[in-house]
Task: structure prediction
Amino acid sequence: MKNGIVRGWTKVFSFTLRQQMRQKGYRLATILTAVILLVAIAGGMLLFDTLVVRKTDEPGSRIERAVIVDNMPGEIDWNFLAWIGGTTDTTHAGTLEEALAEAGPTGVVLLLEESGSRVLLPEESVIDWDDAENWAKEAGQWLPYAYAVKSGLDPAQLSEIYTPVFSGVDSGEEDAPGGLVGEVLQMVLPYLVVMLVYFFVLVYGQSVANSVILEKTSKLMDTFLISVKPAGLMLGKLLAIALAGIIQMLVWGAGVVGGLLLGRALVLAGNPTSQMGLIAFMDLLGSLGGMFTPAAVVMAVLLLISGFLLYCSLSAFGGAMAGKPEDLSTTNVFFTAFIVASLFAIIYGSGASGGMVSEAAWLNWVPFTAVMVAPGRVLLGQLSPLGAVGPLAVVLVVSLVFTILAGKVYTLMAFWRGDPPKPGKVLAMLRGSKANHA
Result:
């Protein structure tokens, strides 16, 4: 490709990458952010376990006894309530005052009168309010059974009638991979991937445009275009800035993973029986059959990288149209418009079934939406790695086309003066350039 359309891109790539990596702000932000993420996540997990989880697990917060004040006619053995909410003791009292005194800080009082039933807590109670409400709901499910027995009906038959029945709606399809955790990931992961891609290209895409406009303002363009094709200039800059951004994100990702692993180790070292939900979730990730296979992870990463290149090529197109840095807010309208339109399409597009992101299959084949939805679908097993090859190829081809167009616009705008041209004017210039070469 010595004399090809992207001639000289390797020189531009190596030069731009060195410039990016040598910046003190880049290195400081990369390392400092990773350290902050590691320390903040690990410290936050340890602090949460100390202040919240261990406090919840304290024996004093558990309901240890239930005192029954039964003012209704008939007899019944209330010991069947002993298992509800972890209650270990069930006693009786003649009056409400006696029951409150007997219940103490770790007990509840169940008062049954003709006007209805109530669950009360003593003033000195240390029981969590939610625990008391849950106990009251469970006990309330069995009160019809208790009243029926007290009225003289057969307890053997009533035990079958009043056994709580739990029902649900089933689609008839196979269970989602990974059980409950898999179902949660199927709903949340696509949205997280969309947000990751959105903010990733929003932050780094602008760097491509700034780098492209730099040559114009510093008069380096004329020197570059002697030995480097315009498309090669765009491709080299685009790949270099993309690689610098990917390296930065990988370092930050390592900080997040390291913080989670360190936090888990610290929490379990001080509290081996910790019931922290985040640790339980991490332990369950290994059971996600059909998800996060090596092939799926590789393909998802390739899709993310291709998406980054696609939106950076759009930003390069905007930078090529601008004559000076202050024009970027006008010329980058393509970049912003495509991001916003894609975001709305994948959230409000057809095919959504209760999740945060549309499940429409056509989103896989529109390059600007594919890079936001396909990675999550591949990781979840909804799209096979082989099936993602087509969308990946489409994204890469469109990225190359925009890069070549950006190079052509860069050359056409070399001697442009004044405000940036309108999109129609740019298209006319491109057509005119093509006709001249023909």
Summary: The chain has two domains: 9-34+176-437, 59-161. The longest strand covers residues 107-113. The longest helix spans residues 230-270. The CA atoms of residues 240 and 422 lie 29 Å apart.
